[in-house]
Fold these 2 entries.
Entry 1:
Amino acid sequence: MSSERPRGLLLVVSSPSGAGKTTLCNRLRQEFPSIGFSVSYTTREPRPGETDGVEYHFVSGERFQEMAADDEFAEYAMVHGNMYGTAGRLVSTALADGRDILFDIDFQGGRQLRRSFPEEVVLVFILPPSLRELERRLRRRATDSDEVIAQRLKVARSELAHYDEYDFLIVNDELERAYDALRAVYVSALHRRSRQAAVAKQLIEGQEELPW
Ligand code: ADP
Ligand code: 5GP
């Protein structure tokens, strides 16, 4: 008798800063509260309103280096001049327990997770409808200084150039439409053969009830 539990899914959502991935990810988490969210570690300073352990675990550069040396990250990268990393233990336990995890990480992180977990990772890239609208959103959000906004716009194009490493591209023009697309990607991924194969095997083996 096989009792292979379906492994969790690692849903990575990336975008240039300001394209709307936080807004879209929050919607998905509201609708599907069972999806875990990977709270990253970062050396960036908290923005007003951010709480340690909620948006990020805010750590010093030295602490981050220690964690990297101790192999505590599933992936890490420098983004906009700061270090960001995903806790490795969170990923391995979620996969083993069959829990899905949502990641708001950049293309470097998505690439590293894909390399380590090719079967479980789904990569989604959120595109702004235009660079002008991207700038408008960054200004309207009002969380960053003019200097930081200018820097983010400068790197937006080079981030966009990585679109071809992603499985799905969603243009966030109208929020409802973009959310429907993200939701559809997640729900479809839950039904991938690799994830549901265990169910088919149980049925073939004649087992009436699944053990999970
Ligand atoms: P990111 O996490 O990609 O940096 P945010 O989710 O913080 O982006 O969104 C940036 C700003 O744009 C926020 O003020 C958000 O409310 C707004 N926003 C998000 N999606 C849309 C949309 N479809 N239309 C207009 N404004 C949006
Ligand atoms: P912000 O500072 O605006 O919250 O995030 C800046 C960028 O860092 C975003 O593109 C975000 O997706 C990315 N990021 C956040 N956490 C991680 C992480 O753990 N790993 C990687 N590679 N990127 C991250």
Entry 2:
Amino acid sequence: MNINQIQTRKVTRKVFVGHQAIGGDAPIAVQSMTKTKTADVAATVRQIKQLEDAGCEIIRVAVPDLNSAEAIREIKKQIRIPLVADVHFDYRLALKAIEAGADKIRINPGNIGELSRIKRVLGLARNYEIPLRIGVNSGSLEKDILNKYGHVCAEALVESTERHIEICQDFGFDDIVLSLKASDVKMMIDSYRMIAARVDFPLHLGVTEAGTYQAATIKSAIGIGALLADGIGDTIRVSITGDPVAEVEVGFRILKALDLRENGISIISCPTCGRLQTDLFSIIQVVEKRVANIHKNLKVAIMGCTVNGPGEAREADLGIACGKNSAILFKQGKIIRKLAEDEIVEVLIREIQNWNSLTDNDNGGFTNDATEILAEEFVK
Ligand code: SF4
């Protein structure tokens, strides 16, 4: 689905992080954060390149000290995607990171201190034409806001965010992206819904401290997914305690599940059950590995039997509906050929690699009754 077809997406202002647009009608961007010491340029560039290969569109690096801020200059020369400097409290690090070439700065103006310091950071960001992300986090809310609400809650996250926005706007700066991250998924959803109803700045979605792969994937799919389904969100980061490449893969999977982005081969497969009469697990494992680096936007269904197989296979660009040690290959809804089990992987991969749309006369000589063809296999 093209982004323009998403009727329900909330329209936000568009900002640019380097060449990457966020907000407005721009596709929802997938980002990640490096886990290396930023001052270790070689290790950081190596990780960013892995992330670029996985499709990452914006990378954030931690800037805890001046060496890290200075390293941005060298890192930027060696990477293709825009870089965000993640700074907390110290305005000097923000200034250095901007001068070193950061494409966006993540810092909360209310945490910088004196107004003269805020003015310098926002002034430099304006001179360099880079946006700022206000990133409010449930783990680091201002004391007075916490005291007011008595505990961390969505209203507190929103109040904190609005306070930072106001500071920026007092200086005439509104090149802003917002995030309101909480480790509590429900609170995170509520916070973003509230802020989306009040302002039109682009929103960076994420569940913070989401945990290791399995927990983080589930929490992010629910939190980020619920908001995206509401039409809220302009860029996403899945936080995983582990390999950042997985953050990007999961991010695209969430977007693909909602038809918001296409990125490579999307495999639809059935969970299998007692009706299965082919080795579907091995077939899917091999196909998944072999298509990992094919950047064609195709839906490929690999289904276990006649119950849902022909239906799903017919809806995909390419579909396999298995029978007893055999399968039917569909292309754009038409049956192309019958396959022996040991041919399935090779033929499917070849069809993906050589993808071209069917002509009207392409039907492989079969009638379109897959159920009948497969039923023959079952009764053998
Ligand atoms: Fe079972 Fe067939 Fe459905 Fe797969 S498609 S889960 S094998 S009924």
